[in-house]
Specification:
Elements: E1 11-15, H1 37-42, H2 44-50, E2 54-57, E3 61-62, E4 74-78, H3 85-97, E5 101-106, H4 116-124, E6 136-137, E7 160-162, E8 168-170, H5 185-201, E9 205-208, H6 232-237, H7 252-264, E10 271-274, H8 281-285, E11 295-296, H9 299-302, H10 308-324, E12 330-332, H11 341-344, H12 348-362, E13 368-372, H13 392-397, H14 441-445, H15 451-466, E14 474-478, E15 481-486, E16 489-494, E17 500-501, E18 506-510, E19 518-519, E20 523-528
Parallel strand pairs: 1-2, 1-13, 2-5, 5-9, 9-10, 10-11, 12-13
Antiparallel strand pairs: 3-4, 6-8, 7-8, 14-15, 15-16, 16-20, 17-19, 18-20
Bound molecules: alpha-D-glucopyranose (GLC) and calcium ion (CA).
Alpha-D-glucopyranose (GLC) is lined by residues 67, 70, 107, 173, 209-210, 275, 336-337.
């Protein structure tokens, strides 16, 4: 058994700060219906009892909140909406006392248009050193009325906005999020300072937003638009890679080499995890080479359809890709940017059963797992009414966007705000559905069959069965069954539509009932085996 750093096999719980818990009192003594740092601190014992190792907190820095904190106006301060630096210190201190690590979000690709640098850039005008921190360019066509190139914003519409003096600036996201020019050395120096600021305050690591962005093709050349593959069959065997001059440029890796040196210069195994939506597992693995970042989110797992074969392939490929980089895999099913996974898996009882089965499988895999707040309650995507939608992409495209996975958590009681905080009878910043009474933490703690009770059992079982396990992991599809072997345990997930005979071995934990010795569809189980065919004994903690 090798001793790995804490993050290597940690379970990390993502806290979406606006929607976790509202604890900061306003004038009338109540919260304002928006989650904040004191709210998180008050609920840390809940996370310890859930059994996670760490939390990742989404951005709480000074921000006009156009993209809910991913538009940072001051990287080294807390937005008054969420508290003050002293609240962060208290959060860190309490978390560490409870044995929880804390990862904070770093947003290096773009600033807010309210950042001092961007305001100075607008004031200073074309050709100034202030503009050279961003990507200002002249337009094309007569009088430069066309954007400098053909790139689209991720949130819809062109990636360029024109300012009154006629220049355009690049924003791969909202117009309120101008992209920095990382070819300007001032930018790298500023972010090294930001890293050190939070490391000095005691954070355990960073989640790096849009880690594959930062550098763009030096000439900002047009994107060659993706061509549709000629035949469906061709696209099945050969993944068509898109031309992406705005993403994943080779120069970006120098940034992470520099950051790794900074992280390594601090005691206590500080780490960073990349949000890098790269096109292949191999390009993802480049971000986690030994002298770069420690981990990258494995979005391949999140995007896998409900199929034993697809699950087996992604497990095998993910493990191989990170082994080449000498890191550990990560697994993630949900986050604040995607539809909640029970809904992706069909919703209702089937979606929930599948969600639990996928979670139990994920928690048996090597490396670390990232959970998104509310998945332990089995929350589904909410159909947020149009007048309540807040995602900038909704305003740019008219499509529902990401608000439906960001609805504030239900903690207790039978009506909104379900103990989230704020005045009694009020709705938080995104309204909660009126049928969540049975989904609150309070009601689920009272029910041993609840999804919350299942998550607590599963996390305890993971610790008891797999802590420090270093054995090889072998995944295969046997018809509709996904079978994974690891550390004397066989993990079986039935992705088909018929019950399957339950394979031999002692049942350590299952994601749902196992009536009459069968493994029902949409159910996963951990079975104790050993190489000699003998059963592995059940862990001593009660599952
Ligand atoms: C990342 C974040 C997302 C944000 C975007 C722009 O993808 O996860 O929420 O909108 O970056 O910062
Ligand atoms: Ca608040």
């Amino acid at each position: 058994m090798t001793r790995h750093p804490w993050w290597y096999d940690a379970v990390v719980y993502q806290v979406y700060v606006r929607s976790f818990a509202d604890g900061l009192p306003t004038g009338d003594g109540n919260g304002d219906g928006i989650g904040d740092l004191p709210g998180i601190t008050s609920r840390l014992p809940y996370l310890r009892d859930l059994g996670v190792d760490a939390l990742w907190i989404t951005p709480f820095y000074t921000s006009p909140q156009k993209d809910h904190g991913y538009d940072v106006a001051d990287y080294s301060d807390v937005d008054p909406l969420f508290g003050a630096l002293a609240d962060l210190d208290e959060l860190l201190e309490t978390a560490h006392r409870l044995g929880l690590r804390v990862i904070v979000d770093l947003v290096p690709n773009h600033t807010s248009d309210q950042h001092a640098w961007f305001r100075a850039a607008l004031a200073a005008g074309p050709g100034s050193p202030e503009r050279a921190r961003y990507l200002f360019r002249s337009g094309r066509g007569k009088d430069g009325v066309q954007p400098p190139n053909n790139w689209d914003s991720i949130f819809g519409g062109p990636a360029w906005t024109r300012v009154p003096d006629g220049e355009w600036y690049l924003h791969l996201f909202d117009a309120s999020q101008p992209d920095l020019d990382w070819r300007n050395p001032e930018v790298g120096d500023m972010f090294e300072g930001v890293l050190r600021f939070w490391l000095d305050r005691g954070v355990d690591g960073f989640r790096v937003d849009v880690a594959h962005g930062l550098y763009k093709d030096a000439a900002l050349r047009d994107q060659v638009r993706p061509r549709k593959p000629k035949k469906a069959a061709e696209s099945m065997v050969e993944r068509v890679l898109h031309d992406e001059p705005m993403w994943d440029q080779p120069e970006v890796h120098e940034v992470y080499r520099r950051w790794r040196k900074v992280l390594d210069s601090y005691p206590g195994e500080r780490m960073a995890v990349a949000e890098a939506w790269t096109q292949t597992a191999a390009s993802m693995a480049m971000f986690i080479r030994p002298d770069e970042l420690h981990q990258a989110f494995n979005f391949g797992w999140l995007g896998t359809p409900w199929s034993a074969e697809a699950f087996a392939d992604v497990i095998t490929d993910s493990i191989a890709a990170v082994a080449a980089a000498a890191s550990a895999p990560t697994w993630v099913l949900s986050n604040h940017d995607v539809e909640r996974h029970p809904t992706r898996y069909g919703g209702g009882p089937v979606g929930l059963a599948r969600g639990r089965a996928a979670t139990l499988t994920m928690l048996a895999l090597p490396g670390s797992a990232y959970l998104y707040q509310g998945e332990e309650l089995g929350l589904e995507q909410v159909d947020v009414p149009p007048e309540a939608r807040q995602d900038p992409s909704w305003f740019r495209t008219g499509k529902p966007g990401r608000d439906g996975c960001r609805v504030p958590l239900p903690w207790s009681g039978t009506v909104p705000p379900y103990g989230f905080g704020g005045p009694a009878g009020s709705q938080p910043w995104i309204p909660q559905p009126d049928d969540w009474a049975n989904l609150t933490v309070e009601s689920q703690l009272a029910d041993p069959d609840s999804t919350l009770a299942f998550y607590r059992r599963a996390l305890a079982a993971r610790r008891a069965v797999f802590a420090g396990a270093d054995d090889e992991t072998v995944a295969s599809a046997e018809d509709d069954l996904l079978v994974v072997r690891r550390a004397g345990v066989r993990i079986v997930l039935n992705a088909g539509t018929y019950p399957a005979p339950l394979p031999e071995g002692e049942v350590l934990i299952s994601s749902g009932p196992l009536p009459g010795g069968v493994l029902p569809p949409d159910t996963a189980v951990w079975l104790g085996i050993t190489a000699s065919g003998q059963e592995r004994s059940a862990p001593s903690t009660s599952l």
